[in-house]
Amino acid sequence: MKLSLAIVALALAIPGANYAQDSTAVSTGTYPNTFSSGSANVSPFTNQSKRFNDWSISVGAGVPLLQSADLTSIKNGNGKNLFGYSAYVSIDKAITHAFGINLQYDRGETRQGWFNTKDAAPDATAVGARTQYDAISILGDINFSNLLRRVDNHSTYRWALHGYAGVGTIAYRAYQKDSKGQRLMTEVKPFKLGSMFMQAGAGLKFKVNRRIDLEGRLMYVVTGDDEFDGGGDAYSAINKRSEQISDNFFNATLGLSIKLGKHESHLMWHDPLQEIYYKLDVLANKNQDIEVCKKGDADNDGVCDDWDRQLDTPAGARVDGAGVALDTDLDGVIDLYDKCVTVPGPVENNGCPTTNTGPVIETETKLEGIEFDLNSDRILPSNTPILNNAVNYINSSNGSYSVIGATDTRGTDAYNQKLSQRRANNVKNYLIKNGVQNGKLNAVGKGEKDLKYPECEPATKCPEWKNRANRRVYFEAK
């Protein structure tokens, strides 16, 4: 590739989409209730807590067609189209829900000219050519469907439009055939300045299931080389263009992506806007009134019961968009009952810090708990403030506590029992590591026998936030 073309390619800016907010509250073991809220866990939308799969492997095959060259694949000379073949494999990394980076290897063969080089030359003036190529490139991947998705789009999210652009190195061998026979005309080795190329295009993905996507893709490849087609400046009888012309081709492929990881959802298929719990049902008949709340608003907090995550909000309490009472200082006491709204303090002291050096009188049998990802016993970073608060609470009390692990109803009873025990053990070890006496704690796994929401049997009967609330560890005074 010519140096000027390489500079232009490297100057292309690939935007990253990291503006959305992740409003999924990683709620606690006693959440929702009148004293606690999920506001502590609302954070910028990233995959830092590893809640989503973000790696995948893609493979595909298709047809390349030389379009801008001295010898083309589309109706050149005899009016026929000459079809080559291509294949690709890539390792894909999602950075956000709308942007990723792919390392891709392409291999194929273009066929161009007046006839297929597998056939005999029809006459002395006819020229055919074929080019075998191998290429490695780095592509930016923009998920336009997630980037431009609207809050009021309630459609099932199974189609996604992606845009790709990137640069790399290409090696090829170009052969030419005429009535005298076939011969090698040009060979370019990889990893040289003159072998750089760029490609850009779009793909339409369909989500088959949580593991597999199908994708139709159309890419435009700019080789930056006038001799890629088997012609070029050195062969003036064929060359009809100036030396600076690049031989370019379309590459249409059909492929599939295999998503890697243990989580239910992939980062590129996650729609953060769906987590705002925003819903309006507008009747088609404009003459009828708009029914905003189908099930009403039992606690009169301004959030419809259809998507209210705290149906018993106390009168006068301010709430967030999910109907959860606000807790400004994140100390587990909602602002309505917090005597020190901006300074964290224990529940038993009405949310105010205490200087009492003696034992704290326990007024609650349960402390705040934490939730877990599906099939995981890993403590999420967003839960460490809650656990650190539990350390202070337990150390200031005279009693001992059971650290109780639970799961949702997915999986077998035996598997869930072991998983819940691992969750309880991990939390117990965290507390001991941070200063709690071993004798004050006892880890107990209850599997799926201790559901916070018993109606979630099976799990498909409930929204995901209820199943997540069932996957928890909480504390209980002995």
Indicate the proportion of strand residues. 25-35%
Order of helices and strands: HEEEEEEHEEEEEEHEHEHE
Q: Which CATH C-level class of the largest domain is it?
A: Mainly Beta
Side-by-side strand order of the widest sheet: 3-4-5-6-7-9-10-11
Report Rg.
31 Å
Largest sheet: 8 strands, antiparallel, barrel
Name of the CATH architecture of the largest domain: Beta Barrel
CATH names the topology of the largest domain as Porin
Structural class: mainly beta
In the predicted model, the low-confidence regions spanning at least 5 consecutive residues are: 1-43, 276-290, 355-366
User: What is the terminal-to-terminal distance?
Assistant: 74 Å
Taking all residues together, what is the mean pLDDT?
A: 78
What gross morphology would you assign? elongated
Tally of contiguous helical segments: 5
Count of discrete domains: 2
What does this structure look like?
The protein is mainly β and 478 residues long. The protein has two domains: 3-23 and 43-274, Porin (Beta Barrel), CATH 2.40.160; 277-477, 60s Ribosomal Protein L30, Chain: A (2-Layer Sandwich), CATH 3.30.1330. It is 11% helix and 30% strand. A hairpin with a 4-residue loop joins strand 9 and strand 10. The protein is elongated, with a radius of gyration of 31 Å. It starts with a helix and ends with a strand.
